[in-house]
Specification:
Number of strands: 8
Structural class: alpha+beta
CATH class: Alpha Beta
CATH architecture: 3-Layer(aba) Sandwich
CATH superfamily: Gcn5-related N-acetyltransferase (GNAT)
Oligomer: single chain
Radius of gyration: 16 Å
Bound molecules: coenzyme A
Number of domains: 1
Mean pLDDT: 97
Number of helices: 6
Length: about 190
């Protein structure tokens, strides 16, 4: 089975595997309720972050590796600013996601991450389709998915129950053919 060659790089970011040394940096963004408002978990404290990091480090050595939960590091500053993930949910189908510390919102970083993860999924993992689900009220993330070329496909009412409520979520998708034709158009510009 194919795997990703890490780290992934974009113009301003490096997407790399987490290490134990990232613990404090992960706590710094995931303890913030604004950051986890539309995520099924959190906010996380130091203890729950440590447990999460243990599970994440174990997932790095699974073979075949189907889950790539990656640290987002700013190339300029070398700082850990968030996390993103690309996970195989069924053969040929990868789910992407991202979260950033609030000090780093509004600079186009999440869009850069979504483009980078989608390209890696199609080029390196030979995905047929990339998908993402997003809470119907998470307008910033919906905008990111649209800017990354993903298309609205469905709404899942009561998609999941978490944090004492039901979550209605949009499904966004990007089929390989659409991504390839967008790449060809961009190359011809
Ligand atoms: C969602 C998130 C990743 C966006 O990161 P970001 O780096 O700020 O995103 P970008 O800068 O690439 O793009 C954000 C877009 O959303 C828009 N936006 C921001 N807040 C918005 C709001 N409340 N309503 C509508 N659009 C909004 C921005 O204007 C921008 O669009 P534009 O370029 O057309 O102006 C970030 O807010 C975050 O980490 N949130 C918490 C975690 C989360 O919700 N993750 C997604 C789970 S599906």
């Amino acid at each position: 089975m194919r795997t990703l060659t890490l780290p992934l790089r974009s113009a301003r970011l490096e997407l790399r595997d987490f290490t134990r040394a990232d613990l404090d940096g992960i706590v710094a963004y995931s303890c913030d309720p604004r950051v986890t408002r539309y995520l099924f978990f959190g906010p996380r404290d130091a203890q729950s972050t440590a447990e999460y990091l243990d599970a994440l480090l174990e997932s790095q050595v699974e073979r075949p590796r189907t889950r790539f939960e990656l640290a987002v590091q700013e190339l300029g500053s070398g700082c850990l600013i968030g996390a993103c993930d690309l996970s195989m949910i069924e053969r040929g189908v990868y789910d992407l996601g991202y979260m950033l510390g609030s000090a780093h919102w509004g600079q186009g970083y999440a869009t850069e991450i979504a483009h980078t993860l989608a390209a890696a999924a199609f080029r390196e993992l030979r995905a047929d389709r990339v998908i993402s689900t997003v809470d119907v009220n998470n307008s910033a993330s919906i905008r990111v998915l649209e800017k990354a070329g993903m298309r609205w496909e469905a709404v899942f009412r009561k998609h999941r129950r978490a944090k004492n409520r039901w979550w209605d979520c949009h499904l966004y998708t990007l089929p390989r053919e659409v991504w390839e034709s967008e790449q060809a158009q961009a190359a011809g510009r």
